Amino acid sequence: MDTVLSGIRSTGRLHLGNYFGALRNFIKMQHDARCFFFIADYHSLTTHPDPKMLHDNVRGVLSEYLAAGLDPSVATIYVQSDVPTVAELSMLLSMHAPVGELERTASFKDKIRKHPDNVNAGLLTYPVLMAADILQHRADKVPVGKDQEQHLEMTRVYARRFNSFYGVEYFKEPTAYNFGTELVKVPGLDGSGKMGKSEGNGLYLSDPDEEIRKKVMRAVSDSGPTREGEPMTEPVANLFTLLRLVSSPDTVAFFTHAYNSCSIRYGDLKKQLAEDIVAVVAPIRQKIEQIRNDDGFLHRVTSEGAERARESSSKTLADVREIMGIKRF
Ligand code: TYM
User: Fold this and answer.
1) Spacing, Cα 203 to ligand 1 middle (Å)
2) CATH no. for 209-288
């Protein structure tokens, strides 16, 4: 049976990028694999969140996970900091992580460009902690969006390097995974790039229906095709990417034909897109508040999850210590 693991930082609310990039894949697989899903609160500390808000952020993300369909009776759901053995594993793995390699990571370069005033060591070693998250449970598959591909490649490098340095076949090489297709990059509504927490271009699982309609109607498009077969501009291609994620194949075919024959009305496309997004989001949103306020349930889920995750992590850490030659007197 495959081991599947995925995680998310505990910053902000979940958006459609998180849902279609990682969460939905995981939910589809949770009944057929040994599954771990966790909230990366250590990772979120790189951006110095207000300590008063940290726990509430974890609560928010956890509630949204559960509302979206993660099932604690089959998946191990835990908070990263409840399993501190991951920090020791990360430290041990960092001994085989050359600094030059870490400095060349795309996410690190992006962060120092955007926040030159906060280039901390946690940011630099972010991929090592992420590798430890994955390797501690010896995961085979990691459902993630396209933006995490490089981190997964680095995890494979660390696994391979460890095995070859110590002459063992201990770590498996996990793959970035999307159920049945390529990794996805969910675009934002601003015409370029990807949907993200900090970009202000997101549709959230907690957004009310009217908010979703408003945001979609305001999405950037263009003045429309003027000749048959005209390639789509990026903003319009983005709208079609969203349409393919939420709408039926018939709807996608209808608007594709309308585009190709230059008869498309973006207002109609957006109306349909908004309704199809509402149909995905509304049932999730309705459950979020109820779960968020159920302290007993959240306590039970995270305590049981942490216990199972600690067991799996401690076993790996003990093996790794032994392989590296750490012994007790
Ligand atoms: P984070 O919190 O940025 O995002 C969580 C998941 O959502 C995916 N995602 C997207 N997918 C497609 N299109 C988008 N626009 C989009 N935006 C976000 C991300 O790819 C990710 O799968 N480093 C991770 C958290 C993490 C982790 C791990 C993940 C820590 N340790 C171990 C997997 C395994 C992160 O920052 O994700």
Assistant:
1) 16
2) 1.10.240.10
